[in-house]
Amino acid sequence: KMLKSPGMLFAVVISILVEIVAMINMTFWQVIANKRIGIPDIMLPIFPMIRSVLSIFFFFFVISRMQQSRLKRPLLLCFLVYALGEALLVMAGPSLAGYALLGASLFIEALAAAALATLRESLVAIYAEQSERSRILALMQTVVMLVGIPFGYIGGFLSDMSRAYPFVLNISILLVGALATLIFFKKYGSGGAEVPA
Prior knowledge:
This protein is an all-alpha fold and 197 residues long. Helices cover 77% and strands 0% of the residues. It has helices spanning 6-36, 46-61, 72-91, 96-127, 133-161, 165-188. 35% of the residues are buried.
């Protein structure tokens, strides 16, 4: 059923991309912040807390107002904004301007990551057959984890060459997500709920 459903295949692809980006961010963010931008070790734990607080704020005041039945524009916007946040992080350096770029990147990433996490759940809710939803979710999560496994190693290999390269990979993945969104909605329609599953 999953293989025959364009909507579910799209939901799986988006989930894989979002999972890979989140894993790379979680693993290598502190490395680039510390080794390349020069944030002291003692300050590093503060940034995940700030990101979490920002995400909670966005969940309550921004994401809750999004129209979940029409997902093309929100998905596109989130992928592109997230890529912008990663680009700002790559451009940041050990200077006052670099710290400003880091702060802007943190703000943008918190919004985009929270929104994408919600939107990928919306895709599953829309396209997964209700009677099979638990099995579909289990299979989908298994596929997402299996596909995502090599990217930890790939990110580490890239980080050895340059602290910025894992985030260049993230930008590429996010742009692939934006392209997949454009292709899917062009082929199956502009409204999320109207697309045949």
